[in-house]
Write a structure and sequence with these properties.
The complex is a heterodimer.
Chain A: H1 3-9, H2 25-43, E1 59-62, E2 67-70, E3 73-75, H3 81-101, H4 104-109, H5 111-127, H6 130-138, H7 143-169, H8 174-182, H9 188-208, H10 210-216, H11 218-222, E4 232-236, H12 238-242, H13 257-263, H14 273-276, H15 297-309, E5 316-320, H16 321-326, H17 335-356, E6 361-367, E7 374-375, E8 381-391, E9 397-404, E10 411-413, E11 419-422, E12 427-436, E13 445-454, E14 463-470
Helix pairs in contact in A: 3-17, 5-7, 5-9, 7-9
Chain B: H1 2-5, E1 12-17, E2 21-24, H2 30-49, E3 54-55, E4 58-59, E5 65-70, E6 73-78, H3 81-91, H4 93-107, H5 110-115, H6 117-134, H7 136-139, H8 165-174, E7 176-180, H9 189-202, H10 209-220, H11 227-230, H12 261-274, E8 276-280, H13 289-302
The chains are: A alpha+beta, B mainly alpha.
Bound molecules: iron/sulfur cluster (2 copies).
Chain lengths: ~475, ~300
């Protein structure tokens, strides 16, 4: 490809791609990943989970209640930094596997790849294999074409709708929401989200397809910086395939290896199978290209051909730049990969620690600033505080308060409440007052701790919050 | 179309000016064009749907409408954010939740409100706003006036007119008239100083004992007659709104703010000479029963 070709590419009308089906070990692996991903995605909202409080759905993102339920873990707005941790782990995991194995994410796990795979499968089931599809596309409009194309698009839309609806189910009680959805009683956001995701799924997986990977995906653009000579790439062994005189079809005389060696041609029989199966429509024999999503379908294709010829597999296969250039096996342990792995381990460790040490309840103490203090009739000084409590456990807690760091004789007053009981997930604001004789203090302000002690949960540590007792100068 | 261009030079529009000046034909990508058309369609729908065009002294009203209650009547108007706000304030889920709580509070006793953490939490957050709107101008936000003097601090534990919920409610409902006559005309300067010394000594401040003795006689006797309201012990009387003079709280005389004993004495003398006249308006006509109830509970919770 030369430069001017690349330029005109942007304005060229798209050439439609009709990938041929293939079977082989990578295709099987991809079906496996697909089944797993679809299974998790579509079934998870329906998984029931017993909880004392909150929804009984295993995974539920309760926006109204401002809580995310993930099995036994309840994530509160205060835990938002976990999301940062999760994103960081995701990013480094991506860097790590990319450094190691190139675009495996693109080829095996990316939603775009997974959904496009299903759409191509539907296309094939309805319209037939690649030649039949090409023929159908070229055929004039008639009843058969309308039915076949219509059915394809209908099925695509159905999958898109299921995808959109399922996404919505994560944000509410699934069975209830489905019922509301079809009786027209679901919240507007549910319809809007479903419509949005249905449309995007249909457009991206059905119509845009490889253009998403080539033109829209930012990851495709920056992944190159994570590549090095040892990164695994899908590549065509040009030396073996072309020989001295280039690739050549089988013909009458070039059917055996010996004959081919004698004629100076390589092992590639120019059958084009590897090109036909490629979902991004490229010819891997032209070398590594930006469009290649490393899905390894061309590997399966060529392996099939080599098997049928009785020749050794691997004319197209996973290899690395180093292997290609020098014949030396790729090194797995490289400073970069080890670096990514180290960051990854630290990040996972920190997140794990943070999640397992989730504080069971929150308490914040805010001093009232207006007035900052009040003088009482017996000469004592009174400061007021607003105490906010949030029970994040799933049991009712009985809480008792005490202050630490106040001088003898200081008095902590919670009004009517000597003991407070807090339901699971309940939030409360209480008013507290502290009174003390001013002469007990040396300075102007006096830091102290308000401590809340759970009475009925021995496994929980008392919780401390710091505040200040202000004393006027005179 | 575009693939005919492939490999060729960019085409021109076909016009030539001045003999050789030509214009390249580089059409926009199709998706770009379609996005543009989509925004045009969106704009047209928007124009029709919402109030948009000014016409002389009026404007197009759009086809959306909002319905709300005004003075017991149902009003339907063209869509606008004001009407939408009014509707939201009447039928919004938060409003309904608040109304429900208001009913709950209205039905509860003061003791119930205080002993229920949820209700008292609601009481505090709602009454804080009511207080800021109606009371804070005099009493200050949080019940503490900026300067000691005209208005009592509601955060301390001294109550001129009584600190039970009934008394506080009565104060808010009907208002209060605080009055202490000016003694500047009746008593001589010396006598005023004597009474002031006695008053200071009541709450344990240092004072000239001889003057205080003399002051006591005036305080308890016919001459001053202070004991009518402040009682013989000086502890004050709620029914008169007369202050307790034996405690550390000064609502008018700025004793805590004085730097030395002479300053304290001057502060008290000033009050005795000039008397006090202050008023709290009645709120029964302006606030409804539930609001008064919320304020009462709030004020009660502020003071000890
Ligand atoms: S070249 Fe091979 S690995 Fe790359 S996208 Fe095409 S089929 Fe997949
Ligand atoms: S599938 Fe293998 S043999 Fe066939 S064209 Fe591709 S590389 Fe050559």
């Amino acid at each position: 490809m030369n430069d001017s070709d690349n330029q005109s590419d942007l304005y060229a009308a798209r050439t439609h791609i009709y990938p041929r089906s293939v079977s082989g070990r990578f295709r099987r692996l991809k079906w496996g990943v697909l089944a797993l991903a679809y299974g998790v995605y579509f079934l998870l909202p329906w998984l029931h989970w017993e909880r004392e409080a909150g929804g009984d759905q295993a995974v539920l993102f309760d926006l109204v209640g401002r809580k995310f339920y993930l099995f036994d873990l309840v994530v509160h707005p205060q835990d938002i930094f976990w999301l940062a941790g999760l994103l960081m782990i995701a990013a480094y995991l991506l860097f790590f596997v990319t450094g190691l194995a190139g675009r495996v994410f693109c080829g095996y796990f990316c939603f775009q790849t997974l959904w496009t795979d299903v759409y191509i499968l539907i296309e094939r089931l309805v319209q037939g294999e690649r030649p039949a599809r090409i023929r159908l596309a070229k055929a004039p409009w008639g009843p058969a074409k309308i039915v076949k194309l219509g059915l394809t698009h209908l099925l695509w839309l159905l999958v898109a709708f299921m995808t959109g609806l399922t996404f919505v189910l994560y944000w509410g009680n699934a069975p209830e929401l489905v019922q509301q959805f079809f009786t027209g009683q679901a919240p507007f956001a549910a319809y809007a989200t479903t419509l949005f995701l249905t449309t995007t799924t249909y457009v991206m997986a059905g119509i845009a397809r490889e253009q998403v990977c080539t033109y829209m995906c930012p990851y495709a653009r920056f992944q190159a910086v994570m590549f090095d000579k040892d990164t695994l790439i899908v590549s065509y062994d040009a030396q073996r395939g072309e020989g001295d005189k280039g690739r050549s079809k089988l013909g009458k005389t070039l059917k055996t290896k010996e004959a081919r060696t004698e004629a100076g041609v390589g092992d590639c029989i120019d059958c084009g199978y590897c090109v036909q199966v490629c979902p991004t429509g490229i010819d891997i024999r032209n070398g590594l290209q930006i469009q290649c999503i490393s899905c390894a379908l061309c590997v399966d294709a060529c392996d099939t051909i080599m098997d049928s010829m009785g020749w050794e597999r691997g004319l197209v296969g996973y290899t690395s730049q180093r292997k290609e250039d020098t014949g030396v096996q790729a090194r797995w342990l490289r400073p970069k990969v080890i670096g990514y792995a180290a960051v990854l381990v630290v990040a996972i460790g920190l997140l794990g620690w943070s999640v397992s040490h989730q504080v069971p309840f929150d308490m914040t103490v805010a001093q009232e600033r207006q007035p900052i203090y009040v003088r009482l009739s017996d000469g004592r000084i009174q400061n007021s505080y607003e105490v906010k409590l949030n029970n994040k456990t799933n049991k009712t807690l009985t809480l008792r308060f005490r202050a630490e760091g106040l001088p003898e004789g200081a008095d902590l007053d919670f009004g009517q409440f000597t003991e407070i009981s807090l339901r699971p997930e309940q939030r409360l604001r209480l008013a507290a007052k502290v009174r003390a004789m001013p002469k007990e203090f040396d300075g102007h302000s006096h830091p102290f701790y308000l401590i809340v002690e759970p009475q009925n949960a021995p496994e929980l540590q008392p919780f401390k919050a710091q505040s200040v007792f202000y004393v006027p100068e005179k | 179309m575009a693939d005919q261009n492939q490999g060729k030079a960019v085409q021109t529009t076909g016009h030539a000016w001045d003999g050789d000046l030509q214009e390249f034909n580089n059409p926009l990508p199709r998706w770009w064009l379609w996005t543009f058309y989509a925004t045009v369609v969106f704009a047209v729908i928007y124009w029709i749907w919402y109030p948009a065009w000014p016409i002389a002294s009026s404007f197009t009203k759009g086809i959306g409408s909002v319905t709300y209650q005004a003075n017991g009547e149902e009003v339907t108007t063209h869509w606008n954010t004001r009407a939408e706000l009014i509707e939201e304030m009447q039928t919004g889920s938060e409003t309904l939740k608040q109304q429900e709580y208001m009913k709950k509070v209205a039905a509860a006793s003061y003791a119930q409100i205080e002993s229920d953490p949820e209700m008292s939490g609601f009481m505090r957050s709602t009454a804080k706003v009511l207080f800021a709107d109606n009371c804070a101008a005099c009493h200050g936000i949080g019940g503490a006036p900026l300067k000691l003097g005209l208005y009592p601090n509601l955060g301390d534990d001294a109550w001129l007119w009584g600190g039970s919920t009934e008394q506080i409610e009565q104060t808010i409902r009907a208002g209060r008239n605080g009055f202490m006559p000016a003694f500047g005309e009746v008593l001589s300067d010396e006598q005023v100083e004597q009474v002031a010394s006695y008053v200071l000594s009541l709450s344990g401040s240092s004072a000239d004992m001889a003057k205080a003795e003399a002051g006591k006689a005036i305080f308890q006797g016919k001459e001053g007659g202070c004991y009518y309201c402040h009682t013989e012990s000086g502890k004050g009387m709620h029914s008169q709104g007369a202050a307790n003079l034996t405690d550390q709280i000064w609502t008018v005389a700025d004793v805590p703010g004085a730097v030395d004993d002479a300053g304290k004495l001057e502060a008290v003398k000033k009050v005795i000479r000039g008397g006090i006249q202050r008023q709290m308006p009645a709120w029964s006509g302006r606030l409804d029963d539930t609001e008064i109830k919320l304020l009462t509970a709030y004020v009660n919770s502020l003071g000890g």
